[in-house]
Amino acid sequence: MRPLLGLAVVGVVGFVVLGSVTSALGPVLPTLRARHDLDASGAAWLLTAFSLGATVGVLLAGIVQRRVPDRTSLAVGSGLVFAGCALLPAADDAVAAIGVLLLIGLGFGAVDLLLNLVLAGAGRHGSLLMAVSAAFGVGAVGMPLLVGWHPGRVDLPFWTCAGGALLLAALTRWLDLPAPRRRVPPGCRVLPGRAGPAGGRIAVVLLGAVLLGYVTLEGGVAGWETTHLHATGGSSPSEAAGAVALFWGGLTIGRLLAAPLVARLRPRRLLLLALGASTLSLLAAATLGVVPGAAVVAYALAGLSIAPVFPAVIAWHTMRYPGGEGVVVLFATALAGPVLTAPVTGALVDAHGTQAIPWILTALAAVTTALVVATRASRVLR
Prior knowledge:
The protein has helices spanning 3-36, 40-64, 70-87, 94-120, 127-132, 135-149, 155-174, 196-232, 237-264, 267-287, 294-306, 309-320, 327-335, 337-352, 357-374. The chain has two domains: 1-177, Up-down Bundle (Growth Hormone, Chain: A), CATH 1.20.1250; 191-376, MFS general substrate transporter like domains (Growth Hormone, Chain: A, Up-down Bundle), CATH 1.20.1250.20.
């Protein structure tokens, strides 16, 4: 098999696995809560463990990248995802489940960073990455549907994820992956930009904060939508789990529609439009939740709305740092979002009930929108 074709196969399988793992935890969260007798705060620690593991995985992968071949690190990361997904259904208490989700997160973070960097360095202008990243949506949409098909089961979705991770590990080891072409080896340092070292650090921190808000919002909807719909929207467990597929479907369609917008609109303007629309969509989910099906549609529109945020932030970063400086910091900061907010969300849900979930998400969207507005005052991001 030719190197570029082999890399494309690895990319497709890898993004399907990433999408599946990302979307699996939210739909099974009510089942894990019941199995381990957890309140909302306890369930939030399951989300936190995964996000913390992903953050650490990104940082570790970035640190060892110059010493360990990407193929080896990808295989190790895939192996960790396989082991964690295979073990989660057998976790007999909440502490074990948290430990296993931390393990899954470690592998996820490493695979997420390295797969994006390797694919971005292949083809012309990252064309291979753009082509195969749509496979993320296949996994993200398919997994909630699988959970909805057999609600109450943890083994079916996570053993499916384990099988995909095992296939990815095998492909990574057997295929002849080309070395990525990078102008600057990515690392954990933020190198000087046009505004000098201090300005460069400020720019990456600001962009990382916006990306953190986006990942928190995406993870918040994916993690808590099923719980909200099942408890307050009159949806059955199957319908509530399957409804998350509409959110991921909206996000996938939005990414496809956003491709020409990223090239035509300045990143700040596109971010304001996307985050403003998502704020209104989530507000609709909060205020119209009693209307049958209204919250499901509102969540789907939120996915459609926030879809351009990630590529817009990456485009903004690339405009300032064409060599990719600070990309590890950007990824790690983004994945740390739910680590900070999931426990707070769980505590608020315990205090005010599941009807508070869309209001919390609306507030997160509004704060992230305000952060983008505040970047106007930064000279390093003009």
